[in-house]
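ok so for the tutorial part 2 we go from a plain amino acid sequence to predicted structure tokens. step 1 is just haveing the sequence, like this:
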Amino acid sequence: MVPFSRFTHINQLFLLARIIASHNIPVHLLCLPEFNKDLKPRLKDEYFEVAKNIHFKDILLSQDEYCRTTEDVDDELVLSIMELLEKQSEAIQRTCLELSTNTKKLVIIYDSIMKDYLGDVHSYPNIETCIFHSGSAISKYSLLRQSVDDLEVVDGGGDGDDNDHEKLIKQMHEEFPAMDSCFPPGMDIFEKDLYEWDLNSGEFMISSREIEGKYLDLLAKAKNKKPLWAFGPLHMLLSSSSSSSRNKDPRHECLEFLDNQDLNSVIYVSFGTGTALSKEQVNELAFGLEKSNQRFIWVIGKGDHSNTNDNNNTIELPQGFEERVKGRGMAVRNWVPQLEILGHPSTGGFLSHCGWNSCMESISLGVPIIAWPNEWDQPYNAVLVTKVLKIGISLSNCTRNNELITSKSIEKSVKILLDTAEGEEMRKRAVELSNKIKSSVSPGGVTAKEVESFISYITK
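step 2 — the prediction. this is what the tokens look like for a chain of 460 residues:
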């Protein structure tokens, strides 16, 4: 497995590695040493049969290059990251070729961003390659439509999936996300190149046909050549292969807080590791949560450097905020067990940046979403949640992602989700969808069969 050197991408392939390893297939994860160091301890609760099949291969760089690669990625660093990937390329190719000499068949699953850094390994006789897409099917299909002029996916008219997508675009008009407002320049070239790339045996998405069936079908029709596997949600697929010895550590303070709240009464607020809020926006969010008079858990990330105290790198909240909301809400500045929070019966909603991992976890656990997207595939994921699945509220206009979201808008959205019939209807739809997803990963379910199909493919 060849991931892109960013935690969210690596984590997805690491989870996938554990699923494949549970079928007694050796998996080699090619990462920078720092990422491998963080991943290794996470195998301590796995069954021995799974852990013994996962091998960590360090991709070594010079100390200067290594430090730069593990920094957070923002728009200014994209170019330098690509330059550093060039430096990793030779080590990745060498490792792949070494592995191929010791096995009858080597299957390389690589992040789509890494395609050009594999060199000519695609052409080796005992090597097969599969592309891994880290985002959603709706974002992938939307980008293809904006990048490939002659994209054809339907035979004639009718009420097919593509027609549904056309209606959605017309319905949203200018509010439907445009590629150039979400991604850096050149994304259309990247997508078209991937579309035309033919030296792979199949493609992967971390998704579920219960969530994105129509868009997965559209992508398969657009490609019309190779298998497209959808494995997700990974945390549910892993539940059958992970040891029951997990969670022996003391319960997190967030879970203790949730234990004392009413059913579906708490809004969970988190924007992942990459979203930075200005000081003004942090204040608006704080006041919105406070004025909503609803219960909340707010996980405060790194945020914008201009909104930190230089001495302790802590986000500055409005003066007296934490004292005023004490007992009703909590602001957390460290790691939290997101899956356990979303799975807790007291959690009634998720105010999210709509990163795909967060969306998949929330949807699969039946928690409706207040969508606050920013960049990359997030606006498309927000469209899926609010317009297609109808299990969420849109808090921001995806086409104006730099606009200040007011405390009044935040207050209103939280109240709708937690304290109105409209919010309850969204929650019911989310729970119904969650139940379908749980069935899909159970033995005989559509996702379980998809895993079996892939395992059969690579072991034949």
